[in-house]
Amino acid sequence: MNESQVQKIPVIVIFAPTASGKTALTKELFSESGSHFILNAEIISADSQAVYRGMNIGTAKPEPELRKLIPHHLIDILNPDQQYNVSDFVKAADKACLDIAGRGKTPVVCGGTGFYIRNFLYGVAPTPVSDPQLREKLKTRLASEGNAALYNELKSIDPVSASKIHQNDSYRICRALEIYYLSGKTRTDFAIEPKLRSQYDFIFIVLEPPRKLLYERINKRVDLMLEQGLEEEVHSLIKAGYTKDMPGLKAIGYHEWFEYPERGQIIEAIKHNSRKYAKKQFTYVRDIDFGKHFDYEQNIEEIYLWIKAKV
Q: What's the Cα-to-Cα distance from 221 to each of 58, 62, 232, 275, rounded to whole Å?
């Protein structure tokens, strides 16, 4: 690290879709029991659903044993009825980075929400402040017309943003439409020119197993979730008063239980949506031209050496 970078906080950033091996990788690299322990670190979760309490199985949160070995941040911080967006994430991640670095450890931002990862690296675009009246009108339209209608409207206005938003993500659909109706510009128009944030010295890693292998793992992961009690977890959330329209229960693995009458259909939908989501998340990091891509199983030694050369 040169003199101009001395004041920067070193941060390891790992993007990895679901079932790609990120939890195993962090254990090997940042737990003293790991085969390639490299440094004392704490994990900042870049997972848009792991923030929700009571949603443990469907979000594949790290096991409590691992969280004892390596402290994790931004997990179990909200109830499923509370909204959480990329600005919330970046602010919280920045605060956690300062805290972790201040205690002499290395922050590791790790997760599969590519939108969060990208905005942590480059900063959040300065879009217009939300307008309560317009937001309420969009919510009313959402209730009467449904997600598909507003999503199709967004596709006609801003196809680039729409391609990165799931049709069930009503919050981000409404926010993108709100930006357009407030400013006359699309969310894509507000996208900032990629320039890494200056307060950090980033080490960026992408875990990218071969597509066929990743999809097989996703299917097996869903089967394991069901064995672990995913269906019971969903029912317990419903019993606690949470509904399908709440932010947490719109997540993959949860909203499907409200949409299909048969268990077999639900399972296939979760697998299909998980595979589709994993593919979509790569769109946020595909054009990032620094860092390195790895397939974890084949490259643990290479990842270890690559990080070691940079820290």
A: 10, 13, 17, 11
Three-state secondary structure call for residue 4:
helix
Distance CA 12, CA 201 (A): 8
Residue 249: DSSP 8-state: G
Burial class (CB in 10 A: 0-12, 13-18, 19+), 228: middle
Q: Residue 247, class by beta-carbon neighbours within 10 Å (0-12 exposed, 13-18 middle, 19+ buried)?
A: buried
Tokens describing residue 83: 């909204």
d(CA 260, CA 4): 56
The answer to whether the beta carbons of residues 165 and 154 sit under 8 Å apart is yes
Characterize 132-144 residue by residue with b for buried, 16 or more Cβ atoms within 10 angstroms of its Cβ, and e for exposed.
eeeeeebeeebee
Sign of CA dihedral 152, 157, 158, 159: positive
pLDDT tens per residue across span 206-218: 999 999 999 999 9
Instruction: Tell me if 70 sits within 8 A of 31, measured CB to CB.
Output: yes
Tell me how far apart the alpha carbons of residues 307 and 10 are, in angstroms, rounded to a whole number. 11
One-letter amino acid at 234 equals V
Q: Which residues of 155-185 are buried (b: 16+ CB within 10 A; e: fewer)?
A: bebbeebbebbbebbbebbbbbbbbbeeeee
- pLDDT per position as a tens digit, 32-63: 999 999 999 999 999 999 999 999 999 999 99
Task: For residue 204, give both structure tokens.
Answer: 């960026």
Q: How much is the pTM?
A: 0.83
Q: Which residues pair with 293 in a beta bridge?
A: 206
Residue 2 pLDDT greater than 60, yes or no: no
